[in-house]
Fold this sequence. Notes:
Helices cover 38% and strands 18% of the residues. The protein is α/β, with parallel strands linked by helices. The chain has one domain: Aldolase class I (TIM Barrel). The strands form three sheets. Strands 2-3-4-5-6-7-9 form a seven-stranded parallel sheet, sandwiched between helices. Strands 1-11 form a two-stranded parallel sheet. It is globular and about 45 Å long.
Amino acid sequence: MQEILTAGRYFRKKFDCNIYKTPISVLGFTCPNIDGSKAHGGCVFCENESFSPNLGIQKPKIVSLNPNSKHNPFLSSQLVQLESQFNQTKIKLKKKFNAKKFLVYFQSFTNTYAPFDTLKTLYDRAFELDDVIGISIGTRADSISEEVLEYLQEKSKTKEVWIEYGIQSVYNETLKRINRAETIEDVEEQIKITRGYGLKVCAHLIFGLPGENQKMMLKSARKAVELGVESIKIHPLYVVKKTALANDFRRGKFTPISEEEYIDTLIKTIKIVPNEMLIQRVTAGISDDSLISPVWCKDKHKQMYNIKKALEKNGYIY
C-alpha cells in the first residue's frame, strides 16, 4: 500500500510533531471579482460565509478594502479577530488531535487584496502567535503584488510560508462560465512568478464545474503537476444558498457531480500526482442548511469513509 503525502505527514516529518491549520476569516477583505474591479458578484458558487465557519453569524457591514485603500478603519478589529479565532481553534485542535504547532490559514475572500501595510501587520502578528510555525494565504493569482512576494520570501527563510491559488480549471470557457474573471494563462504566469521567489504553492482544483467532463478535470490536474506546484487541494462543486449557481440549479441548468464520478476522478488524479506532491484535501462539504445539492456533500465523515475505502482498493492509504 502506498501512503499519500498528506499535509499531516509532511509537517510531522518536517517538524516532528502534529501540526494543524487554523482557518482565519478576517472581515474587511473582499475580492476584485466582487467589488467591481474586475467583475461583480464573485464566482457563481461564491457565498463566502458558507465556506467560513469562523465568521459565525457575523456579516460584514462594509467590505471596501483593496490594494489602493488609503486607510484601513478595520485594522484593530482585524487583529482582534485574528487572535481570537486562532486561540479558539488552537484549543479545539489541541484537545481533539493533540496538535502541538499551527499554521495560520488566511482562508476567506482574497487575502492579499488590501494595502501592503495592512497585510504586513496581519501577517507579522500571525507569525508571532504562540506555537505558530508559519502561514498559508488563500488568494487569487491576479491579486498579489511583487512587494508582498518579496516580503513573504524574506519571511520564508525562517518560517513556513504557503500561497494558495485557485486554478479551479484550465479551460478559459469554464472560467468564463463561472464568472472567474481571469484566464488560465494569467494563473500559470503568476504561479511561475511565485515559485521564482522560492515560495511554496498550493493549487486548488474543483471537480464538477459546469460543462466539464472527467477528461477535462484530469487535464486540469495534469496542468497543476506540470506547473510544479508543491501541493494541491481538490473538492467537488456543491451548491449553496444565495449563489448564482443555486439559481442555475433550480432552473435545471446545472447538475452536480455524482459521488461515484467524483471518487473515480479523484483516484485517477492521485495516480497522476508525483509521490512528493502534497495532497492537502481530497473533498469538501458543508453540514448546515445552506447546502442545496448534492446530498452526498452533507456528511463529511461518510465522504471520507467512501473515499478511503476506494483508495485502499487501488493500493493507497490516505
